[in-house]
Design brief:
With 319 residues, the protein is mostly helical. It has a domain of 164 residues: MetI-like (MetI-like fold, Orthogonal Bundle), CATH 1.10.3720. It has 16 helices and 4 strands. It has a two-stranded antiparallel sheet. The protein has a two-stranded antiparallel ribbon with strand order 3-4. A hairpin with a 2-residue loop joins strand 3 and strand 4. The longest helix has 32 residues. The radius of gyration is 26 Å and the shape is globular.
């Protein structure tokens, strides 16, 4: 076989330019909704529904923090005489409310709902990774009876849409007292995510040579010590990539959250769309809540982006 058969063909300059243009165009299109959400969050309610839309800050509209104030506070309409008799406003949100003949009467439920999302999403992700790693290691290293059938069964749980099992889960949770509880949502999201974790992590662990563990056990390590000190460090990139995918599902999940939570354990996704302002939907507050809701996933992904990129390409590394 000639050496040319193994040579790598470099793409032409035109192909590289075309690929770069396509990537930039795709990125611009993908960022339009995020940009629109950001702009809406700093508009006043009238500006948010104006037609034609007001797009350019300081040109078409004056930026305001009213959306964030409405998101974090509960307001009540009062008469101008009542507002005139009040002491001076104690903050910017109070001043904004009074400018619209309203007063702040307390905090909204957004912060508790946001905290619920953090606890449920990160809790279920951690539990999914622990269970998924253990199961994936067993499938990868041991002779499990009916291994292929079990793996297919695990994967099949991801094929059903959530609404298909929503009613049975609702009835079961009502009998067990898990409705509207953080523990119930963590267990439910874990049961959905663990199938994805097992499949992804098994592929990563399969790429780790068995010889490393065998050498460690020859040196006196137990199977558990070899798993902890040899396999896990090499599977870190795969674990991080899997954790990000599991977290995104748990963070954004809507159907089960609407059906199984209503108060104590309600997460942000079903709460944000029902933010009502004077005269209907408070779109600046909805946009502000959505923008803040995106931050944890964005920060988590950016902090672990190196591991994510390595994890995605891990299977391309030959033993």
């Amino acid at each position: 076989m000639s050496a040319n058969a193994h040579s790598v063909v470099e793409p032409s300059a035109g192909a590289k330019l075309a690929a770069s243009v396509l990537v930039i165009l795709y990125a611009c299109v993908a960022l339009i909704p995020l940009l629109w959400i950001g702009l809406t969050s700093i508009k006043s309610p009238p500006d948010s529904i104006a037609y034609p839309p007001k797009v350019v800050p300081f040109v078409h509209f004056t930026p305001t923090a009213e959306g964030f104030c409405n998101l974090f506070t509960t307001r009540s309409r009062q008469t101008p005489d009542y507002i005139a008799g009040l002491p001076p406003s104690t903050g910017g949100c109070d001043e904004v409310a009074r400018s619209r003949n309203m007063v702040v009467v307390g905090a909204s439920n957004y912060v508790p709902r946001f905290v619920n999302s953090l606890i449920i999403a990160f809790g279920s992700t951690a539990l999914s990774i622990v269970l998924g790693t253990a199961a994936a290691y067993a499938f990868s290293r041991f002779r499990v009876p009916l291994k292929d059938d079990l793996m297919f069964f695990i994967l099949s749980t991801r094929m059903m849409p959530p609404i298909a099992v929503a009613i049975p889960v609702f009835l079961m949770y009502r009998e067990l007292g898990l409705s509207d509880t953080r523990l119930g949502m963590i267990l439910l999201y874990t049961s959905v995510n663990v199938s994805l974790a097992v499949w992804l992590l098994k592929g990563f662990i399969d790429e780790i040579p068995r010889e490393y563990e065998e050498a460690a056990m020859i040196d006196g390590y137990t199977r558990l010590q070899a798993f902890w000190k040899v396999v896990l460090p090499q599977a870190t990139t795969g674990i991080v990539a899997t954790a990000i995918f599991c977290l995104i599902f748990a963070w954004n999940e809507y159907a089960f959250a609407v059906l199984l939570t209503s108060g104590a354990a309600q997460t942000a996704p079903p709460f944000i769309p029902i933010i009502i302002g004077e005269g209907g939907q408070d779109w600046p507050a909805v946009a502000a809540g959505t923008a803040l809701f995106l931050l944890p996933i964005l920060v988590f992904t950016v902090l672990l982006r190196k591991h994510l990129l390595r994890g995605i390409t891990f299977g391309a590394v030959r033993k």
